[in-house]
Amino acid sequence: MTHDPFNHSDQPEPPPTGQPAAPTPEHIDKPAEVGHGKGADIVHLDAARAGRHPYRPDDPEPSSPAPAGDRPTLEGQVIRVDQPGNEDSDWRAELEAKVRTRRPVVPLWLRSRTEAMQTLAWVGKHYAHVAGYQLTRTPMYAGRLAFRSPRGLARLAGGMVRWTFDLEGEPVRLAAVQKADPEAYMKLSRQRDSRVRLRVPIMLVVLVTLLLAAIIVVNQPDAVQWGALAVALAALGILGKPADRPLIERAVLASTVEKLTSDIVIRSLTSLGIAGITQAMAKNPKDAIRFVSPITRDGPGWRADLDLPYGVTVGDVLDKRERLSGALRRPLGCIWPEGDSSIHEGRLILWVGDKDLSKTIVKSPLLKATAHDVFKGIPFGNDPRGRLVTVPLIQHNVLIGSLPGQGKTASVRELAAGVVLDPTAEGWFHELKGTGDLDPYEKVCHRYVSGIEDEAIAYAADSLALLRKEVMRRAAALKTLPSDLCPDKRVTRQIADKRSLGLHPLVAIFDECQNLFAHPTYGAKAGEDAEFIIKLGRALGVVLILATQRPDKDSLPTGISANVSIRFCLKVAGQTENDMILGTSAYKNGIRATVFVPKDDAGTGYLIGATPMPKVVKSAYLDTPQTQLIADRAHALRKAAGTLSGHALGETPEQLTPSYDLLADILAVVSASEAKVWNEVVIARLADLRPEVYGAWDTLEGGAKTAQLTTALKPYGIKTMQVWGTPEGGGKGANRIGIARDDILNAVTESDRRRGSGAAS
Fold first, then answer.
1. Would 357 disulfide with which of 121, 246, 333, 401, CB 3.0-4.6 Å?
2. What is the pLDDT of residues 246-267, one digit of tens each?
3. What is the side-by-side strand order in the sheet with 676-678?
């Protein structure tokens, strides 16, 4: 019959005719059958289990699998492929794994010249401070010694007397007398007599020696006498020191920061309320959280590398960062958990700093720099460990995003400082907020604009259109260069220095770029140009730096956010904004700029693309006077090098986009007798006035036409309303969306007033 290997209740097949039946596990120690129903029997558990395994539980496990030809096959037996046993290991794979995880011979801080210099400078400053602190207090220490010397002399004399006459043993001898133990007393007395007989001559020798030394010193010059007196007073002063008041004060107070230990880390992680950690600790508290390396000092803090329990990711811990701060009893700005997804999602790198990062101010190294080379990157800020982080600029594009007031413009200022201090780099700066944050750099820019009006937006759109043409020109120019000068078809320092080629670095900054990309007239074309430049311009020396406080699909086209290579995200509100700046799945992977605290963490964000792994960085801060000093230095450099151009020389900028003033055009087509007018009527009149500008608006259908004007007036603070009117050709009256002429007039008046005050300042 056919045997089902998965049906263990089947009876074994009978042996062939003429052969004795072999004993089977089912027949060993089989108990008597007991009728509990038709066909029911009792099966021995060990025998049943033996039939399901390749070897019986009481047999030794095979040391190695038998060759296929020699391995017996039992009919009806299920052979499991995951049985324990020694498998042949690949020693090369093991060696490769050991190479990947080997610890460096030279410490990491010594392998970086910058970090080594910073460490040595810190050590030098520390000991210079200690030496200076103690030297200034030397007179005070001398006074303390002189004041304490009489007490020291008394202690010295008393100690000599007690030692000479063995007065330390007097209480023991008195105790023997009180106990009426003559034998013990006599033994102690004889011991005391022998000691005194030995010590008295020694003390006499010491006293004579001191007397001779005093006589010799008296006959020496005054300098020697004063020196000997100072030594004697110092020695006596040290002997007279009170137990609770040390002579020398500490130049640096001892740190009160608790040392990070494995017990503290485990206790803190367990208290977070993460279900996976709680369950793992309940089942196996010893191995639930495994430390892959010892906890060590890492800069001004402690670093712990550990594997979280199975199923727990670094993102789960990041969600509990505030609770982790409370568990570790450290400020939130000291707690910086990170992941290492190159190993696995459960590898946690916990860094606990000594100082709160939010309380530190990072000074820009460019403040004292006479010049800078953008090909070497731009010093941007410090990580929580206090190490300088440099942002590579050439062959990259940068995207910066955050909520308002979180340090976005300050980050842009730092990058702009590195650009202007390179006299070969050409700067096109666009500050589309109108507050003048980048005004100090205006004197060194080839193109510059500051404002939120349509004229400023049009200027920025023109810049992108010109940059697109420049990228195409550079691509053709780079193609003609000989292979020995340009082997990789990329702009290098050597090529950039040849000014005649026109391939010098060109960096365009667009601060508050959402005002450009979301503009109803210029936004779509500007987004296409920016995407083209980002994709092709990085190898040609053309770099875009975009900063926005509203990262969404309308104000930041996906073609732009998906192609920038360096991203810096400060505090944002949620996961959508986080991933718009840092890239898809960044939030899921534990890179969350939502963990930063508003105001306290201003200037602190996640930096991706500038370093091998995502890193928390606090950008350097430049105030307006400091920015002005850098701009003055940059202007002198460029003037000496002859690289001032365009706006810096007062040249008229090239204009591609038709210039118009929307508010002035509306006032031109709406007469003073018309208090309120429908949007569709205004658009029809504007299309007649400037077909090349407003003609596309008039082709829209229904509500889209009305919404077009409503959207265009939003930047001016003008709101539309319900307006009662009748069609111009006659017809039935109705309520439709429209505008009030007085609102347009007031906006024009306010704009003129602001321009006048700006010119006066």
1. 333
2. 888 777 766 566 788 889 999 9
3. 676-678, 734-740, 721-725
- Pairing status of strand 296-297 against strand 290-291: unpaired
pLDDT classification of 179: cutoffs 50, 70, 90: confident
Does residue 706 have a pLDDT over 60?
yes
Please tell me the distance from the alpha carbon of residue 478 to that of residue 473, in angstroms, as a whole number: 9
Give residue-wise pLDDT tens across range 452-480: 988 899 999 999 999 999 999 999 888 88
First to last CA, the chain: 105
C-alpha distances in Å from residue 128, one per residue of 120, 125, 134: 12, 5, 10
Contact between residue 543 and residue 381 where contact means Cβ atoms under 8 Å apart: no
Task: At 685, list the tokens.
Answer: 């009149």
Give Cβ neighbours of residue 196 (< 8 Å, ≥ 6 apart): 164, 165, 166
pLDDT at 13 over 60: no
- Spatial contact of 607 and 614, defined as CB atoms under 8 Å apart: yes
| C-alpha to C-alpha distances, 327 to 161, 264, 269, 272, 727, nearest whole angstrom | 58, 9, 8, 8, 70
Whole-angstrom distance, CA of residue 716 vs CA of residue 457: 13
- pTM of the full predicted structure? 0.61
More confident residue, 563 or 253: 563
Query: Could you tell me how many helices (H) and strands (E) the chain has, helices first?
Result: 25, 18
Are 415 and 603 a contacting pair, CB within 8 Å? no
C-alpha 403/C-alpha 249 separation (Å) is 48
Using the CB atoms, write b or e for 376-393: b if 16+ within 10 Å.
Answer: ebbbbbbbbbbbbbbbbb
pLDDT of 586-626, one tens digit each? 888 778 888 888 878 888 999 999 988 888 999 999 999 99
Q: Which residues pair with 621 in a beta bridge?
A: none
Question: Please, how many CA atoms are within 13 Å of residue 445, restricted to the half-sphere of its CB?
Answer: 22
pLDDT at residue 755, as a whole number: 58
Can you say how many angstroms the Cα of residue 700 is from the centroid of all Cα atoms in its chain? Answer: 48
Angle between helices 741-760 and 662-669 (to 10 degrees): 140
Separation between Cα atoms, residue 53 and residue 78, nearest integer Å: 7
